[in-house]
Amino acid sequence: MNLTKIVLLSLIVISLIIIIPIIIVSTSQPTLSIENTEFGCTPDFWKNNLELWRVVNVDYNADFDETFGTRYFEPKITLKQAINLEGGGLNHLAVSGTAAYLDSLVNPYADSEILREHVHDNHIHALDAFISLCEENT
């Protein structure tokens, strides 16, 4: 073999060694997007799929009261903590409100600002109705 063939073969082998891992990595890690994700409506769906929050551009470490313009919780809680609360009253409002808000960001027929106002104004029945309606339509 002459030197040109050896160099050419070496370049091909090196290129394959570099390109194949790049192709494998780029095709094995699906990107999250609204188009390739099946969204649910329930608080359980959102608390069990924290990775999907970034698809709707919501940081689950964001402050609940700042997100909804309220002063319900002292000490402050994050949206992730809010959706994991148990019980009634403000806890139920936080769970349903967070889930409904997240749902509204992927539902083309929902207005996220109205859902935020429902949380702000403590309209728990409107939030629960929204989640129920969403569940019926999925």
Please, could you describe this protein's structure?
With 138 residues, the chain is mostly helical. The protein has 2 domains: 1-30; 43-136, no CATH class. Helix content is 59%, strand content 0%. It has 7 helices and no strands. The radius of gyration is 23 Å and the shape is elongated.
Shape annotation: elongated
Number of helical regions: 7
Radius of gyration: 23 Å
**How many structural domains?**
2
Task: Provide mean pLDDT, rounded.
Answer: 84
Distance between the termini: 65 Å
| Succession of helices and strands | HHHHHHH
Low-confidence stretches: 25-36
Q: What is the helix fraction of residues, given as a range? A: 55-70%
Structural class comes to mainly alpha
**Beta strands, count:** 0
Strand portion, in percent? under 5%
Largest sheet: none
Key attributes of the depicted protein:
single chain; 138 residues; mainly alpha
Record the SSE blueprint:
Blueprint: H1 3-28, H2 43-47, H3 64-68, H4 79-83, H5 89-106, H6 112-120, H7 124-136
Give a brief description.
This protein folds into 2 domains: 1-30; 43-136, no CATH class. It has 7 helices and no strands.
